[in-house]
Amino acid sequence: MTAAVSTAAVAPFHAFAQGAAEQPQTQTSAAPAEQGPEEVVVTGYRMSLNQALEAKRAEVGAVDAIMAEDIADFPDLNLAEAIQRIPGVTINREGGQGRTITVRGLGGDFTRTNINGMETVAGTTGNRGRTFDFNVFASELFQSIVVRKTQSAELDEGSLGATVDLQTARPFDFDGFRTALSGQASYNDVTENTNPRAAGLISWANDDKTFGALFSAAYSERNPFDEGFGTTRWEDNGYAAFERSRVSPDQVFSPRGNYAGCVPCTSQAEIDAVNQSFHPRIPRYAESLLEQKRYGLTSALQWAPTEKTQINFDALYAYYSSQTENANAGSISFSRFNAAGINETIVRDYEIDASGNMVYGVFDNVDLRSENGFERHITKYQQYTLSGSHEFSDRFRMTALVGTSENDLDTPYNFSFAYDAINVDGYTYDFRSNSRFPQLVHGIDMTNPDLWTLVAARRRESSIVNSYDTAKFAVEYDLTDNLSLKGGALVKSFEVDMKDFSSGGDLAADRRLVGVGAIARNLPIGRDMAIPAGSDRNYIVPDVWKSAGYVGLFTDPFYALNVSGTDTRNVQEDDASAFVALDFEYDVFEMPLRGSAGVRYAQTDVTSRGILQLSPTVSQVAEVENDYTDTLPSLNLVLEATNDLLIRAAAAKVMARPALGDLTPGGNIDNTSRTIRFGNPLLNPFRATNYDLGVEWYFTDEALIGAGLFYKDIKSFSVRQTDGIPFSQTGLPIELAGGNDPSTSYEVSRMVNGDGGWIRGIELQYQQPFTFLPGALSNFGFIGNYTYIESAVQYDGGQRNDLLNLSNNAWNTTLYYETDKFSARVSAAFRGEYLTAFPGGNGNTEEGVNDATTIDASVSYNITDDLTVSLEGLNLTDEYTDAYVGDNNLVSRYRHTGREILLGVRWSY
């Protein structure tokens, strides 16, 4: 792959020309004077970059875009992977692919995503919030992505970070009859498996473009391994660990939570140092086998009955299924502060580093656990929108949209089994030579089934349904040639319904099985990892389906599912908003000034439902209503200092609605001790004032140098707080007070509207084709950006730190080469360290993920004008996900999925 890209630098190729209907001719090159100027049609990747640049330049607000290279030919295989090329955008990867995005330091809950003009939510595994999961959709189904980083009055409210507009293809995008077919074979170098990927599109529009129809489809499969090492954090023993869990000042801890003994210790000081040192909680190697299938369908109809009227109908359906088998084996003693764990463990040898971390230890009386679980998740997404525009006159116009969408995430299978081997001698872990891949020696033959006992069986099922119904319209009237008045209104209903059921747990003695050979399988660990010599690399783990049959997981009434109160809840939001704005264009000191000034008013009515546990056997559904209003002024300005130099400025008040998980009234009430722990259905939205200033220099054709500054003054930011308040102020129904006076003070732990904080940063951007270079070098081009962000928000206990998921540093670069026959590009994406939890769990100061750089590359060759072959490589350096805990960067999770190589062919006509 690298050799192919390098060869492009010296090979005498010509201009790349993979035709696309209705794409602008964007560059002219000099020719001999007697021939006159020769027009060169720019297509392919370079064309998509130029279209995105033209869209950015024309906008009043701060906007970046990504366009398809051709019909059903998006530059990246994954939508999130494509969006990360935009300045200020980083992505979160799971299973080797990008899933969610963070824009200018704000995660998915603060970013609003539209498909074909209406807000929506798409979710897969573990998505219980407002975050949009881009992995649901194949990139081939979309024609463009536009990221709007500044707010205007005409944009629907609901975002602190950005609004992302995804647009599927429509027939009027192309001339006449067009079709495209593509197929790829994807090879993973860890699993050594090959999977298919295919897409197709057919589009027709009559010559006058008064009617057209389009249909597209995409299908793909993946089954990578996600393998590596994990600790589930580090922590200490003794009183320090118990102090963190103390409920009352006079609570007595028994047993103490210290090791049973320390053979090499010669003083009480050494014993105390051992007990107070940090150690891995559950050190273990693990492997997850993923199987993913995804297909999507789109259709579009367009009708233009007159030159002044256009009607669009768009339909989108997506299906995404994933199943995962998660197997691991390791020690659990170090996470147990009781007689069955730490209190029985004897330290035979150890080493504590200068920071107080026990990086090496040999132990007796250690409890081992082998686990395996199976999950299957199915996402079905559907959306239908009817939109249109009409010009009543040359000065008066209207647009309108009605639409509905639903995302159903069903988890029909989520079950697991555990084997234990108790009080094993000679267990060893050693991080001294490798902080991410320790040597693990467990002290027994880990493949002998007679040494293991089946001790636990768990089962869970769940479903999440997100639905949106939207209707909106906008009108625009040109008061003068330079001044337009806009106005419009929106009504929207959003509902999320979560149901969760569970059963099982630790098995009673009469349900346990000693000797698990009949229901176990062997697990080889580390197919492509540098595990230190001498480590155990083969384990006995549960065979999930044999184990399910043995215990009767789906037939025995003992495992009948019960409602899980904490994850069964419902939230319904009814939103109504209206806006008015003035768009203007005047000369200021002979410099054109464009802008938009307006205000949006929004009212939100929220009904939250959840299950409150009143006693171990009594629960009740609680329903709480809330409402709030927001007035959101905004101003966007663009000054054309010269024909090629643009100066942008923007200011706006913005809001994002509370996280769905925080709105539940579900939780626990103890009317005897007068304590409540629940969500907070009375939360106000996140509110902020955003400021932006940018400079863009379009110094030559298809080129840009840009810089942007931004500052977000966050007025409110939800944090968890515990304090004493009257029951009547909780928002819960008075009858749940159990006869207590509503003015009685309760100790209430809930989310509250915190003090907020700030985010500030700078974005730098450079893009240019190297047409000024001689010969074959003129076919090169470059696009790159760098973002620096810093922030401070208040967390629990008044501590301040960066926002979660915010990377201080991020950059993206792409070097490309294109001729009429050959195209090549190599891209690198860097994301700096970011927090995932603050404070961290188990006494750690923080939890986060370390830096990562991902490199992708692709080459393609046009056999004919209609037929192209391609070779692509993803994650060529096999970058690991490196999660850490604490100030000392202790390993929490270190895993990888390998490289993927795709060989493909594409035909278009």
TrEMBL record:
It is a multi-pass membrane protein. Residues 57-162 form the TonB-dependent receptor plug domain. Pfam families: Plug (PF07715), TonB_dep_Rec_b-barrel (PF00593). Keywords: Cell outer membrane, Membrane, Receptor, Signal, TonB box, Transmembrane, Transmembrane beta strand, Transport. Its main location: membrane. It is found in: Cell outer membrane. This is TonB-dependent receptor. PROSITE patterns: TONB_DEPENDENT_REC_3 (PS52016). InterPro entries: Beta-barrel_TonB (IPR000531), Beta-barrel_TonB_sf (IPR036942), Plug_dom (IPR012910), Plug_dom_sf (IPR037066), TonB-dep_rcpt-like (IPR039426), TonB_rcpt_bac (IPR010104). CDD domains: ligand_gated_channel. NCBIfam families: TonB-Xanth-Caul. Gene3D superfamilies: TonB-dependent receptor, beta-barrel domain, TonB-dependent receptor, plug domain. It comes from Steroidobacter gossypii. Residues 556-876 form the TonB-dependent receptor-like beta-barrel domain. It comes from the Bacteria. Belongs to the TonB-dependent receptor family. Residues 1-17 form the signal peptide. Transmembrane segments: none annotated.
